[in-house]
Amino acid sequence: MNNHANAITSLSVDSFLDEEVEGFHEPLILSLKNGNLMDTLRTSLRAEATVTYQTSPVARIVRRDWNIVSAKLFVSALDHDYAKKIRADVSDMTWQMQDVLDVARTLPIPDLDTSWMRPRELRLHIVHPLAAQWLRAFTLLDQAYAILINAELDERITPEMRWQIIAPAQMAYMGFKATAMRLPLKSTAELLEEAGI
Question: Where is 49: in which H helix or E strand?
């Protein structure tokens, strides 16, 4: 059963705005938080990428975290020994996100209809190769979220099932973020081990 229209209608608070959004298929362009942090870094690598995410949850995380985590990652990775820890966590995170995407692709969904989803576009500054790897990992996560959100709307999975599938990737991201920012939290391996994953 396809509930895309019902889900959108049930959230309606302004029918005029709904009509504008439904008729507009261009990506919503978002600005990142903490943009000033990137300007203060003196790096040998500085690239710009424009990325488009299909899903709001992934775009929200990147919008909130990209600049601050990238800046802290750059500074933390100046310590070559510590950079190995970041590299290990970003590798674990990428593996977890690929695994979540692989699981999502096995769900019995005949056709993935993302036409109702409004993509979000972000312009990012990449200041370290590990940040580029993080970006690639989140592309995988976005693809998985798109499948899972649509599966939930089509009532093929429950919200609880979606959470169970996505949780390892979210925990891996929290571990990577903590390591990159040198936060006193557990590493990806410790979080996954505690969860029995």
Answer: strand 47-53
Starting at the earlier edge strand, list the strands of the sheet with 28-30.
28-30, 120-126, 47-53
Q: Residues for the chain: how many in total?
A: 197
Describe the chain by its helix, strand, coil percentages, rounded to 5: 60, 10, 30
Bridge partner residues of 183 (DSSP) = none
Distances in Å between the Cα of 12 and the Cα atoms of 5, 9, 15 are 11, 5, 6
Taking only the tens place, the pLDDT of each residue in 67-91 is 889 988 988 999 999 999 999 999 9
Q: What are the residue boundaries of the structural domains of the chain, listed by start? A: 27-195
pTM more than 0.90 = no
Are the CB atoms for 31 and 121 separated by under 8 Å?
no
Q: How far apart are CA 153 and CA 2, in angstroms?
A: 7
SS3 of residue 42 by DSSP: coil
Tokens in use for 192? 């996954």
DSSP characters over 46-76 = -EEEEEEES-HHHHHHHHHHHHHHHHHHHHH
DSSP letter, residue 155: T
Alpha-carbon dihedral 167, 109, 157, 163, rounded to 10 degrees = 10
- Give me the half-sphere count of Cα atoms (radius 13 Å) on the Cβ side of residue 93: 30
